[in-house]
Amino acid sequence: MPAPMRVAMIGNGFMGAAHSQGWRTAPRFFDLPATPEMAVMVGRDPNKNAQLASTWGWTEASEDFAATIARDDIDIVDIVTPGHLHCDMAIAALEAGKHVLCEKPLANTVEEARRMAAAAAAAAERGVFAMVGFTYRRIPAAAFARDLVARGAVGTIRQVRAQYLQDWLSDPQAPLTWRMDKSKAGSGALGDIGAHAVDLAQFITGSSLESVSGIIETFVKERPMLGAGQGLSGSVGDGTGPVTVDDYASFSGRFASGALGAFEATRFATGHKNGLRIEVAGDRGAILFDLEDLNAVQYYDATAPATEQGFKRIIVTEAEHPYLSAWWPPGHLLGYEHGFVHQAKDFVEAIAAGEQPRPSFTEGYQVQRVLDAVERSAEAGSTWLTTAA
Ligand code: SOE
Q1: How many domains does the structure of the chain reveal?
Q2: Most CB atoms closer than 10 Å: which of 64, 218, 283, 304?
Q3: Are residues 99 and 227 both part of a single domain?
């Protein structure tokens, strides 16, 4: 019987539900070297936390983070809180000797991310590891897109188009939540979903962004408050509160490989619900991954005879595709939640092998520097030249 790895999860929102499902399912579909046990869930509201812990399958519920990370019977701390809590919690857990999985983006600022990466590097020397939760790398079709690029299927990459398009804020009456409060979220679309686009574009291409030039915008500057007790900062007007983060970000990026990228992250893309799209164009072909069609990769082979050229849709459900040997027969599709199962599996396997799980905090710190460079570029505003006569 594999040894247990006892998990404490900190937070109980949407990501708490997704991570709980990942911890529950991973040992039932993958032959793991250690068995993750859902030991305790930590949350602020005792009643809500106790009820959700029971529903999601956690043995205990607690409101005490410090006491939880001090326990000898906890091996992993999984941080799924809003971003302003990531830095102090992750560093405290690493210093307590716990392996840490932290949701994205790694932090709310570059300085916090730098401190987290330094603490993780020091902890790794002691055999304690940390990983940041960019789960879309673990959607099989996205992992297969990377494999195709790595084996030269598109040749020399010239262009990357990376978008993360949602529309849940296009209604100006959509209420204010912590994701629109800079003191909690750090940024808006840029960090919340732009971070995914940056990480996945870098993951699939195998190259990092070295410089960027961008713009950010807040379209709706006041929103209705949901009600008291939200913990939001900022003054309340007539039942409204200020939006202190970006609604939209777009930027150009230059990769170390020399490829150029066009990036967009917006929660105002009317009609798009969760459209993370990465298109990579090279001199021998192109690939397109679209989260709204997450079991497929579109592949264009530019070396095929001209009469046979065109994007072909590869259904990524063969046993030979990444992660698929654990699941269903070909054509029986996977979902968004499987990325969290694969994340739990990969994290447990890396720790059991004494290896650094990927993406590391160092990689999360690099993504944070990209986001920060976009914000600094937008503040500089130096790239706007008028077209007026
Ligand atoms: C909201 O934009 C959100 O839940 C993000 O926070 C997640 O990272 C993304 O996976 C889905 O959309």
Answers
A1: 2
A2: 218
A3: no
* Ligand 1 atom showing the smallest separation from residue 103 Cα: 8
Last-in-domain residue among 117, 136, 155? 136
CATH number at residue 374: 3.30.360.10
Q: Are 185 and 83 a contacting pair, CB within 8 Å?
A: yes
Q: Tell me if 193 CB under 6 Å of ligand 1.
A: yes
Whether residue 359 is contained in a domain is answered as no
Distance 80 CA to ligand 1 centre (A): 12
Tokens in use for 20? 């709980």
Model confidence at 2, in pLDDT bands (50, 70, 90)?
confident
Strands 157-165 and 260-266: parallel
Predicted confidence (pLDDT) at residue 310 exceeds the cutoff of 80: yes
Query: 120 and 21, same structural domain?
Result: yes
Confidence of residue 1 (pLDDT cuts 50, 70, 90): confident
The alpha carbon of 151 and the centre of ligand 1 are apart by a number of angstroms equal to 30
CATH of the domain at 113: 3.40.50.720
Which percentage of the chain shows pLDDT scores above 70? 96
166 touches ligand 1 (CB under 6 Å)? yes
Q: In ligand 1, which atom is closest to the CA atom of 189?
A: 2
Collect contacts of 299-308 with beta carbons under 8 A, ≥24 apart. Answer: 299/148, 299/153, 301/153, 302/155
Q: Is residue 118 located within the same domain as residue 147?
A: no
Please identify, by atom number, the ligand 1 atom nearest to the C-alpha of residue 267: 2
Atom 10 (ligand 1): residue with closest C-alpha?
A: 193
Average pLDDT over residues 47-70: 98
Q: Is 192's C-beta closer than 6 angstroms to any atom of ligand 1?
A: yes
Ramachandran quadrant class, 227 (left: phi over 0; alpha: psi -120 to 50; beta: rest)? left
Query: Can the peptide bond before residue 105 be classed as cis, meaning omega within 30 degrees of 0?
Result: yes
- Residue that is last in its domain, among 93, 121, 136: 136
